[in-house]
Design brief:
Number of strands: 3
Strand order of the largest sheet: 1-3-2
Largest sheet: 3 strands, mixed
Distance between the termini: 17 Å
Number of domains: 1
Strand content: 5-15%
Length: 170
């Protein structure tokens, strides 16, 4: 599969914000760490914040948003914990348990846009047993193929179609 050299993440942001305007949610780059801010009376629309101007961070954070149900979208960072590098092996196992589905959607988004995908362990300072990495990759692939067989969540389906349209426009 031929991959594109570069994608303007600002086009993705603008397209997401138009597409999901009715969801009162904005995609926003420039964050030091990715984070979800729910809508409230003081800050207006919910914000899906991604790291710097990194396309893959944007796609990954949108994947989390696409999976989160109504209750989770009312909670800061969907009510989950985030721990940066230096997680222990048990903390990394908990991370892997919640990351297979979002990364499976991220893989779908990357394919729609024509950019490379690689699974992320998001913990560069930990040496993991090879079996842990293989188990995570297997869970990610199983989730990816389950989405392919049974269909994507509605917001993920809309976003995938949006990315495909943007790719065709280039």
């Amino acid at each position: 599969m031929g991959y594109r050299q570069q994608v303007d993440v600002n086009r993705i942001v603008a397209a997401f914000n138009r597409c999901f305007y009715s969801h009162n949610t904005r995609l926003q780059g420039g964050a030091v760490e990715p984070y979800y801010v729910p809508a409230d009376g003081r800050h207006g629309a919910a914000r899906v914040c991604f790291r710097a101007d990194y396309l893959r961070s944007a796609l990954h954070e949108v994947a989390h948003w696409c999976i989160a149900g109504c209750h989770r979208r009312r909670l800061a960072d969907y009510g989950y914990w985030y721990s940066p590098d230096n997680r222990s092996l048990s903390e990394q196992a908990a991370f892997f348990a919640v990351e297979a589905k979002p990364q499976a959607l991220e893989k779908t988004f990357c394919e729609a846009l024509g950019v490379p995908f690689a699974a992320s362990i998001d913990n560069l300072n930990l040496t993991l047993p090879q079996q842990s990495l293989e188990d995570f990759q297997s869970r990610l692939e199983a989730a990816y193929w389950a989405y392919r067989r049974h269909g994507l969540p509605e917001r993920a389906r809309r976003f995938t179609h949006l990315l495909q349209r943007l790719r065709r426009e280039d």
